[in-house]
Model the fold of this input.
Amino acid sequence: MTKSRLGTVVLLALGAVLVLSSCGGGGSKRLTKKQYAAKADTLCAAFNQQVKAAGSPKTVAAIAAAYDKLLSLDRKLVADLKKLKPPANEEKAAARAMTLSDEQATRAAAVVAALKKNDITKASALVKEGNANSSERKTIFKQLGITACANS
Done:
């Protein structure tokens, strides 16, 4: 895989990780399904814009720097999503999505570390590893009606 192609794949994968784990602004009261999805969609859409703005870096160093920035934003978004109070009947699915998001953030940090060491092989393997995780998260977000996260 060329460095340019890897950069695009890595940014898209990280973007997916970050978008899928992005949402926030809760309160102590449970939200309705519609409210929960709307709040999550708003945050995911904003994050999608940040991912898009990161562009397609061409060098390993630029890819690592973009990942670093997006990973920081992802961690904030995951924290915000955890503040939301989903409807009781969707709490289990939302919790699973957050677990997957935490796992993906850990994996993304490992990708950044590999890229900083110029270990393209390891970074590529980690991105491939994350695909199943990402697929499951997207499915859960679709079930929850959170389209901005599910369609990223």
Observations:
- The radius of gyration is 15 Å.
- The chain has six helices and no strands.
- Helices lie at 3-20, 33-53, 60-83, 91-116, 120-144, 147-150.
- Residues 3-150 form one domain.
